[in-house]
């Protein structure tokens, strides 16, 4: 039995624009998906899922990834979860050159599904890592991140960047621009997350931005402006913690927090202009700002799900917990370690 766990993430800046080659800076957070893989003697895959923000379910199906299980929970949620597990198993089989390998897979996660915290990427990264290790063919991190990206790309019909999967694999803060992915040094940013209890449809939201971008030059300019904003944010981080500096993980200065927060506010406005915010997300963003957060924005695809704010005090978390439409508010520590083995 092999157990691996991978972190979720928040976007400091750059979601959606990253799909069109602009840079983005996501940061891994200490909320993890844990995947257990136990090889079977046949080619079946049995999946047991718990805590995926849906009623737990157990399904068993044969090796063919076209099979769909017969279970008593809402089909779209099961299909979403199963699609990612299927794709992870396929990548593991391919990497280990074991096309008929069967597994008992268990997924446990404390990352809300589809809410902008990278739940699917964490499941895919931990799943490929656990399954390849269980087959005696562990992957190096770069290949693991690449295969996890390919799995997401396939499930999301080609509408995925490398940002979520690279961040979940490597941990810490990362910079992604097209195929260029690297870890960057970052101080210990005081993230506070507000969750509206819902989820957005990433595929639909990404397609919506794509259509706007095609239709209006000013929408294309908005996407480019997000890229400019990300470059400005990166420069701030780089000045605060030069590459390789021991100050990585140190407490950020009030000036840095104020400047990053201002860019986050700006980023939220541009995402709202692109039509990917929601009333609940706007309400949480404003509650955070009113409570004195340095800045706040939606994180991930939008449409519903989570916002992220910067505030080292308790004020934002408290305000969010009293905000109508906010189901859960929590502080999210930066996860400096990416995917890790819990049981080899
Ligand atoms: C979703 O978490 C982030 C998007 O930028 C899509 C992607 O990068 O794959 C909206």
From TrEMBL:
One of its GO terms (biological process) is isopentenyl diphosphate biosynthetic process, mevalonate pathway. GO terms for cellular component: cytosol. Residues 257-315 form the GHMP kinase C-terminal domain. It is found in: Cytoplasm. InterPro entries: Galactokinase, GHMP_kinase_C_dom, GHMP_kinase_C_sf, GHMP_kinase_N_dom, GHMP_knse_ATP-bd_CS, Mev_gal_kin, Mevalonate_kinase_arc, Ribosomal_Su5_D2-typ_SF. It comes from the Archaea. ATP binds at residues 112-122. Pathway: Isoprenoid biosynthesis; isopentenyl diphosphate biosynthesis via mevalonate pathway; isopentenyl diphosphate from (R)-mevalonate: step 1/3. It catalyses: (R)-mevalonate + ATP = (R)-5-phosphomevalonate + ADP + H(+). Keywords: ATP-binding, Cytoplasm, Isoprene biosynthesis, Kinase, Lipid biosynthesis, Lipid metabolism, Magnesium, Nucleotide-binding, Transferase. Its EC number is 2.7.1.36. The keyword Phosphoprotein does not apply. Residues 84-172 form the GHMP kinase N-terminal domain. Signal peptide: none annotated. One of its GO terms (molecular function) is magnesium ion binding. It holds the Pfam family GHMP_kinases_N. The active site is at 164 (proton acceptor). PROSITE patterns: GHMP_KINASES_ATP. Its cofactor is Mg(2+). NCBIfam families: mevalon_kin (TIGR00549). Catalyzes the phosphorylation of (R)-mevalonate (MVA) to (R)-mevalonate 5-phosphate (MVAP). Functions in the mevalonate (MVA) pathway leading to isopentenyl diphosphate (IPP), a key precursor for the biosynthesis of isoprenoid compounds such as archaeal membrane lipids. Belongs to the GHMP kinase family. Mevalonate kinase subfamily. PANTHER family: MEVALONATE KINASE (PTHR43290:SF2). Homodimer. This is Mevalonate kinase. It comes from Halorubrum salipaludis. The gene is mvk.
């Amino acid at each position: 039995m092999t157990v691996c766990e991978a972190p979720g993430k928040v976007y400091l800046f750059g979601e959606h624009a990253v799909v069109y080659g602009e840079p983005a800076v996501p940061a891994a957070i200490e909320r993890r998906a844990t995947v257990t893989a136990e090889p079977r003697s046949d080619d079946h895959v049995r999946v047991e899922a718990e805590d995926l923000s849906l009623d737990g379910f157990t399904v068993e199906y044969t090796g063919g990834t076209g099979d769909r299980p017969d279970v008593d929970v809402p089909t779209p949620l099961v299909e979403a979860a199963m699609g990612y597990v299927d794709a992870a198993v396929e990548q593991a089989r391919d990497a280990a050159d074991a096309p008929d390998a069967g597994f008992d897979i268990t997924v446990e996660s404390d990352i809300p599904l589809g809410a902008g915290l990278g739940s699917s990427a964490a499941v895919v990264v931990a799943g490929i890592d656990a399954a390849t290790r269980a087959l005696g063919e562990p992957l190096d991190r770069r290949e693991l991140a690449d295969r996890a990206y390919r799995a997401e790309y396939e499930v999301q019909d080609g509408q995925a960047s490398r940002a979520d999967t690279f961040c979940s694999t490597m941990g810490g803060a990362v910079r992604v621009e097209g195929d260029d992915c690297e870890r960057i040094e970052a101080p210990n940013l005081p993230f506070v997350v507000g969750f509206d209890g819902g989820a957005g449809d990433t595929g639909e939201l990404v397609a919506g931005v794509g259509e706007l971008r095609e239709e209006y030059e000013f929408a294309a300019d908005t996407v480019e402006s997000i890229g400019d904003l990300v470059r400005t944010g990166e420069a701030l981080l780089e000045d605060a913690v030069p590459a390789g500096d021991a100050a990585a993980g140190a407490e950020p200065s009030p000036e840095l927090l104020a400047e990053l927060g201002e860019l986050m506010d700006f980023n939220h406005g541009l995402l709202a202009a692109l039509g990917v915010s929601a009333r609940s997300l706007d309400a949480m963003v404003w509650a955070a700002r009113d409570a004195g957060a340095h800045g706040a924005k939606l994180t991930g695809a939008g449409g519903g799900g989570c916002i992220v704010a910067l505030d080292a005090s308790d004020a934002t978390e408290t305000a969010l917990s009293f905000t109508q439409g906010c189901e859960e508010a929590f502080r999210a520590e930066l996860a400096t370690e990416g995917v890790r083995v819990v049981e080899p």
